Structure to design on (149 residues):
């Protein structure tokens, strides 16, 4: 069994992880142009969610999402033009723009959340509750292990 770059992952392990990634993206339809049958892309939806969570400056969003500054800037401008977010100058530092959801942005996010909840409920409707608990525990384990610095 060959390993990659002397690391502890075998080529077969990498293939299995990539296969699961493709499955996950397909089952949640993450490659659809519009997320959850809305007119929003997955990044637009995620930006609305993160702003609502308090990641409300471009720098915070860049850190959380690990995306190109120009790309996020263009998408934020689009959300602002659609009157889903506002930008206000921070009182503590005039260079910083604080982002906030508008009432329309809050309504859009509420609909995205509703559809996401429905998607997951539909996906797991035929899965036994014991199996759901095990799946969630496995997801938490993945998050814990991949979040270690």
């Amino acid at each position: 069994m060959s390993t990659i770059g002397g690391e502890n992952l075998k080529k077969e392990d990498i293939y299995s992880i990539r296969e699961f990634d493709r499955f996950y993206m397909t089952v949640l339809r993450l490659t659809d142009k519009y997320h959850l049958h809305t007119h929003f892309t997955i990044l637009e939806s995620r930006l609305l969610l993160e702003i609502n969570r308090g990641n409300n400056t471009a720098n915070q969003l860049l850190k959380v999402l690990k995306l190109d500054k120009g790309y996020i800037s263009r998408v934020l401008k689009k959300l602002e033009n659609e009157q889903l977010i506002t930008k206000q100058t921070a009182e503590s530092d005039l260079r910083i723009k604080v982002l906030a959801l508008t009432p329309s942005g809050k309504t859009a996010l509420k609909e995205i959340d509703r559809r996401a909840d429905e998607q997951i409920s539909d996906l797991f409707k035929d899965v036994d509750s014991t199996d759901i608990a095990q799946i969630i525990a496995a997801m938490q384990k993945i998050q814990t292990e991949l979040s270690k610095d």
